[in-house]
Structures are given as C-alpha cells and as structure tokens.
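Supplementary Note 3. Input sequence used for the single-chain structure prediction.
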Amino acid sequence: MIIYQKWSRSSESWSEREIVSNESIIESRSPKIQIDSEDNLHVCWQDYSDYNSSGGDLDLFYKIRNATTESWSLTDVLTYNSDKAILRVVLYRYQ
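The predicted structure, written as discrete structure tokens, is reproduced below.
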C-alpha cells in the first residue's frame, strides 16, 4: 500500500492520510513522487501484484493526483512481463 500525506508549514500540521494505491496484494516498494508546474503529484512505485494483467513479476505502477480536483487517477501499469527487477525509478519535473 502506498500512502500520501502533506506537511503544511502555515499550520504546522500533517494533512489527512490519502491512500494512493491499495491494489497491491504482495509488495509495493520504492515509491517516488514529483510535483509538476501545476502542483499535480506524480507517483511511481515498483510492485509485484498482478494488477490489470501485469503478472506477478516486478512492474512499475503510476498515479497522478490532480491539484485542482484533489483526486487520484486510476493506477496505470507502465511495464508488463518484466523478466528482471526494475532499476531505480526516476521522475522528471515538467516545466
């Protein structure tokens, strides 16, 4: 499971926890987060779950949180049928 929480400097407190992904039934790991120029959050992580026919191998999953609607997209599987572990996940900031 991947969970997101935001720190507010002005109120010096944490936001409510948001579940980013609960599709995993085995292991989610190595989450990476990036904020784009419109304050949308992009989250990628590695997962062994057979979500959306991705198979039980280690694949790369992705979601975006829309800053305007404050809602999460559906989970996208970026890799299928990987034959070995995915190396480090890197996200780039879109300008």
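The radius of gyration is 14 Å. The mean pLDDT is 81.
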